[in-house]
């Protein structure tokens, strides 16, 4: 057979192409070096409880990427063992789980490698993934059989009704379900970003739950009381219905009343605000008044009891006035000296002196115990002071003396306080640049010419007989040496 040169060249080219294609199919598609010699791969074993339809040449994935194949699946004394051929170019951590999954509904199984610790040492040839690190899917036949029995247990008519009603209820709600899924996804992403805070919340929720356990009795009591209330509402159903029926007309009448009061009601409410502020300030006093008022009313009623059966003309109160004059004696400390007291015969009305005039003995003194020096400070509990300014300031009450000066100047004190007392911050009385030399004071007092009676510096009344109208006109040296009679 004679072949010309052109045919020979064509045959040579065809042979080269055929050999190249065969080599490419064997190397790239069939991977003959891997299958025959294991080039670029290493072998590991996976222990399984059952095969779960896993077969040779099944895929092996790592993080969703194919990294090898199953070379063999065989029985062992304890279960099933699968040999995996993995790509040497992909480092796979040894701390992982191996799970068998179905890729499609017809049962195409594959092995998924799921790492637990991505920083662990990589797998190497001969490693074994133990059985407690593997899992297999449930038997699809058992699932289908259970689902079939569950469907058969439902009557066909009821099942059809459920399907029809589900379609009626859910038809056209695709966008809503999409929003629910998107919202749930956003919530999951936010929860993942705040994982530490959520973990701390869960860890610290035990004390809150313990409080719920500790208050279980109180919750039960509250539920019991609520049940009693609902029972009462049920028993009084007609009354409740009457309230509901008459509530609207009553509300209309109240609205009409407010409309009539609209011109004056804001003014009244504004004034009540001021009254309320005063009432809040004097809350303790009002409370004390409300406590004592019933006692006073009861005391007044007790004064009528003795005369209830009186057949005479007198029917009224029975009171016993037992007055103790001068026990204790009147307080003169803090008031004007007796020499400056005005006689009752004067009829003019001069200006009152500047400052406050009150009994200025110690607050625990027996004199004038209900005087203004013992007025409680409303805004400073526990403090007592004669003036509001002293109550509101840090100034403390300072008495002039102990009040026991039975003779001499009742205002005698070493503190240099003014009488009358000037308000806090007031300028003191002006003083001369060079005060005159001290001279003994001369006591001057007005007396009654008829009887010789006058008021002394201590506030007591005295009588000097030789000043009266009936006193002898002429005096001898003996009478001058004898003290006059007086008291």
The rounded distance between the terminal residues' Cα atoms is 183 Å
Judged by helices, strands and strand pairing, the structural class is: alpha/beta
Low-confidence stretches: none
Q: Residue-averaged pLDDT, rounded? A: 81
Shape: elongated
Topology pattern, helix = H, strand = E: HHEEEEEEEEHHHHHHHHHHEEH
In helices, the fraction of residues equals 25-40%
- Beta-strand segment tally: 10
How many helices does DSSP assign?
A: 13
**Strand arrangement in the largest pleated sheet:** 7-1-4-3-2-6-5-8
Radius of gyration: 57 Å
| Amount of beta strand | 5-15%
Record keyword descriptors for this entry.
about 475 residues, alpha/beta, 8-stranded mixed sheet, two-stranded antiparallel sheet, 13 helices
Q: Can I get a quick summary?
A:
This protein is α/β, with parallel strands linked by helices.
Topology of helices and strands:
Blueprint: H1 5-29, H2 32-37, E1 41-48, E2 59-62, E3 65-75, E4 80-87, E5 96-102, E6 109-115, E7 128-129, E8 134-135, H3 140-153, H4 156-170, H5 174-193, H6 195-203, H7 205-214, H8 216-235, H9 237-261, H10 265-281, H11 283-304, H12 388-392, E9 453-455, E10 461-463, H13 477-481
Parallel strand pairs: 1-7, 2-6, 5-8
Antiparallel strand pairs: 1-4, 2-3, 3-4, 5-6, 9-10
Overview of this structure, please?
The chain is an alpha/beta fold. The chain is built from 13 helices and ten strands. An eight-stranded mixed sheet has the order 7-1-4-3-2-6-5-8, with no helix packed on it. The longest helix has 25 residues, at 5-29. The N and C termini lie far apart (183 Å). The relative contact order is 0.04. The model has no long low-confidence stretch (mean pLDDT 81).
């Amino acid at each position: 057979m004679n072949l010309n040169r052109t045919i020979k060249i064509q045959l040579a080219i065809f042979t080269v192409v055929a050999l190249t294609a065969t080599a490419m199919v064997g190397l790239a598609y069939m991977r003959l070096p891997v299958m025959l010699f294991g080039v670029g791969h290493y072998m590991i074993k996976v222990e399984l409880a059952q095969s779960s339809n896993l077969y040779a040449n099944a895929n092996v994935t790592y993080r969703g990427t194919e990294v090898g194949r199953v070379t063999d699946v065989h029985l062992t004394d304890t279960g099933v063992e699968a040999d995996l051929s993995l790509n040497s170019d992909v480092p796979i951590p040894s701390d992982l789980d191996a799970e068998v999954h179905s890729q499609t509904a017809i049962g195409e199984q594959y092995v998924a490698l799921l790492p637990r610790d991505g920083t662990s040492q990589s797998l190497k040839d001969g490693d074994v993934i133990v059985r407690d690190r593997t899992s297999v899917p449930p038997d699809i036949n058992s699932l289908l059989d259970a689902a079939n029995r569950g469907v058969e247990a439902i009557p066909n008519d009821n099942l059809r009704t459920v399907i029809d009603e589900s379609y009626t209820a859910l038809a056209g709600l695709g966008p809503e379900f999409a929003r629910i899924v998107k919202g749930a996804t956003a919530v999951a992403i936010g929860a993942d970003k705040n994982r530490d805070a959520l973990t701390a919340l869960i860890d610290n929720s035990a004390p809150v739950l313990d409080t719920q356990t500790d208050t279980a009795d109180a919750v039960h009591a509250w539920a019991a009381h609520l049940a009693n209330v609902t029972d009462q509402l049920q028993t009084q159903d007609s009354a409740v219905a009457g309230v509901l029926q008459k509530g609207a007309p009553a509300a209309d009448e109240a609205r009409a009343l407010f409309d009539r009061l609209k011109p004056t009601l804001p003014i009244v409410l504004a004034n009540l605000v001021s009254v309320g502020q005063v009432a809040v300030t004097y809350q303790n006093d009002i409370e004390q008044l409300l406590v004592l008022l019933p006692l006073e009313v009861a005391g007044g009623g007790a004064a009528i009891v003795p005369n209830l059966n009186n057949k005479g003309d007198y029917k009224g109160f029975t009171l016993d006035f037992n007055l103790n004059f001068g026990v204790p004696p009147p307080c003169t400390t803090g008031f004007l000296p007796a020499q400056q007291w005005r006689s009752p015969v004067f009829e003019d009305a001069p200006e009152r002196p500047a400052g406050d005039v009150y009994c200025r003995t110690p607050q625990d003194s027996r004199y004038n115990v209900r005087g203004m020096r013992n007025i409680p400070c409303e805004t400073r509990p526990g403090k007592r002071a004669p003036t509001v300014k002293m109550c509101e300031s840090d100034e403390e009450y300072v008495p002039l003396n102990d009040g026991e000066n039975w003779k001499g100047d009742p205002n005698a004190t070493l503190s240099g306080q003014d009488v009358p007392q000037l308000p806090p911050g007031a300028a003191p009385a002006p003083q001369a640049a060079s005060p005159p030399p001290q001279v003994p004071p001369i006591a001057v007092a007005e007396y009654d010419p008829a009887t010789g009676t006058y008021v002394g510096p201590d506030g007591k009344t005295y009588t000097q007989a030789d000043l009266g109208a009936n006193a002898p006109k002429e005096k001898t040296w003996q009478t001058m040496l004898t003290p006059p009679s007086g008291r």
